[in-house]
Amino acid sequence: MSTTEGRAPGQADEARRRGAFSSRRVFILAAIGSAVGLGNIWRFPYVAYENGGGAFVVPYLVALLTAGIPFLLLDYAIGHRHRGSAPLSFARLRRGTEGLGWWQVGICFVIAVYYAAVIAWALRYTFFSLDEAWGADPEGFFFGEFLQAGDVEVTADIVPGVLVPLLLVWLAVLVIMALGVQRGIGATSLVFIPVLVLAFAVLVVQALFLEGAAAGLDALFTPDWSALASAPVWAAAFGQIFFSLSIGFGIMITYASYVGRREDMIGSGLVVGFSNSGFELLAGIGVFAALGFMAQAGGVAVGEVASDGIGLAFIAFPTIISEAPAGALLGVLFFGSLVIAGVTSLVSVIEVVISAVRDKLDTGRLTATLLVGVPAAVLSLVLFSTTSGIYVLDVVDHFVNQYGILVVALVSMLIVAWVLRALTGLGDHLNVHGRPRVGAGWRVLVSLVAPVGLALVLVFALRDDLAAPYEDYPTWLLVVCGWALVLALPLVGFLLARLPWHAGTHLDGPPPGSDPATPLHATTATDPAPRDRPGTGHDEGGHR
Amino acid sequence: MSAAAIVMMVVAMVVIWGGLALAITSLLRHGAVEDRAENRHRDR
């Protein structure tokens, strides 16, 4: 199917120039690919377990329905209506808010640099699973033999075992990015999201047959109703939904700008939101069934072995793989799933940056891919294939999530809702083809409930980080890779916004001909924008 | 597994996976009308 089939003439030009998803199905799979990442697999199960177990279902669903999906729809509306990358969409919404878009672009660049490293580790561990290379001491192997992590310091000692897979990850990702929106991102999602769901489903079935699986599920789902009265539990629910859905930092704005103007973005958003949570639930069942087996084998309680993040993936799971029957299969499925979930998220993060560069400089896709991808890959290789990689990664990840993504999301949401008062127009845009329609309820959720939920998450994060240094890292590391970084990102963002757009960029409101109510085959005689004329820019996928 | 844990697991599955099924059904039902209209245009 061509990328321009079934689109109005002006839309066909736009699709060829900027790139577009060929259908709603491809967009939904790409958006699921972005939302389903490492956090679904290694963060959700432990967050749920720690915050009330079965009772966590209540705040989690409340957060999904009152903040997650409404915010997702806001992102969709901004991108779909303004047909641009995050900076261009914000510039078209109101010229002065372009910096918010570049702030989001900066965050995405930083995330891409370190996210690739974790995927590289998972890639290596997919193969380690075959012969259980970690032997009897997975923890010692991970930090010692594999990462060769020494004292907390920044070094230039290269670790070849990380460098090579990291290089491979970057090569694969750059090829995907160079192929474009449909042939790269779309095609990758179309193939790998079904593979991911299938692989993880097999893993869950295998985990459920392990001895002790029921004890693991019992630990995960036994409700602690007193948790519902705890503010940190509610903050954890809003935080999990928010970080898991890939909202608020440009990804969904960018992806939505590649969707045909007559598509149902509300219905699509509901499918994406529930798919993300559906996968999280599947991951929770698989992970805790496996942890139940690990606890049973070690003769301890599930609480003793429950963990999240790097500890869960690279220490607990290798232990499980070594002890479980058909452990190699379990390992390949688990780490392979991490790689796929990671790559489909990484491409979405980089696309935010590439799309912004293309819009601002009017470059072809290959040029923009190299302009963005090469520096990102080099930085990634320099910072994370050394013996100090894991400490830098841990600090950057923590700070850029808590005070990068969370703050830019909160600030941009408040500005759009309260300063620009743009929610009515954005809601009307969604309602042209969207069902069920959004109305005053959605506006209240986006302007009040979601910001309060996110502010709660931010307050608890700040309280913890000010009370004690994060993970007891030295102050210089926290200042340089943490606080200074997150403070620099908005400054850089608003500086980049001062750079001029190339001549002819439409900046005042949605571009001409972008009204979704326009009949499909209407002529575009009233479409004078130079950017919408064929041949003014660089075609998607066709480099001149 | 305790009864309470089983109940909460089933509740989570029904609400989240059921919600997903509902969302897909609703999108297909609404989207199908759009697609048919677009196909008619294309065929001309």
**Sequence of secondary-structure elements of chain A:** HHHHHHHHHHHHHHHHHHHHHH
**DSSP helix fraction of chain B:** over 70%
Rg result of chain B? 19 Å
> Total number of helical segments of chain B?
1
Shape of chain B: rod-shaped
Low-confidence stretches of chain A: 1-6, 522-537
The global form of chain A is globular
What does this structure look like?
The complex is a heterodimer of chains A (544) and B (44). In chain A, helix 7 packs antiparallel against helix 17 (327-361) and helix 9 (160-179) crosses helix 10 (181-208). Helix content of chain A is 71%, strand content 0%. Chain A is mainly α. The longest helix of chain A has 35 residues, at 327-361. Chain B has 44 residues and is mainly alpha-helical. Chain B is 93% helix and 0% strand. The longest helix of chain B has 41 residues, at 3-43. The radius of gyration of chain B is 19 Å and the shape is rod-shaped. The A-B interface holds A 5-6, 24, 53-55, 57, 61, 214-215, 217-218, 220-223, 262-264, 267-268, 270-271, 273-275, 277-278, 281, 285, 433, 435-436, 520-521 and B 1-2, 4-9, 11-13, 15-17, 19-20, 23-24, 26-27, 30-31, 34, 37-38, 41-42.
Spell out the blueprint of helices and strands.
The complex is a heterodimer of chains A (544) and B (44).
Chain A: H1 9-18, H2 24-35, H3 38-42, H4 44-50, H5 57-82, H6 86-93, H7 98-131, H8 138-146, H9 160-179, H10 181-208, H11 213-221, H12 231-244, H13 251-256, H14 265-298, H15 302-305, H16 309-323, H17 327-361, H18 365-384, H19 389-419, H20 423-433, H21 440-467, H22 475-496
Helix pairs in contact in A: 2-10, 2-14, 2-17, 4-14, 5-6, 5-12, 5-14, 5-20, 5-21, 6-7, 7-9, 7-17, 7-18, 7-19, 7-22, 9-10, 9-17, 9-18, 10-14, 10-17, 11-14, 12-21, 14-16, 16-17, 17-18, 19-21, 19-22
Chain B: H1 3-43
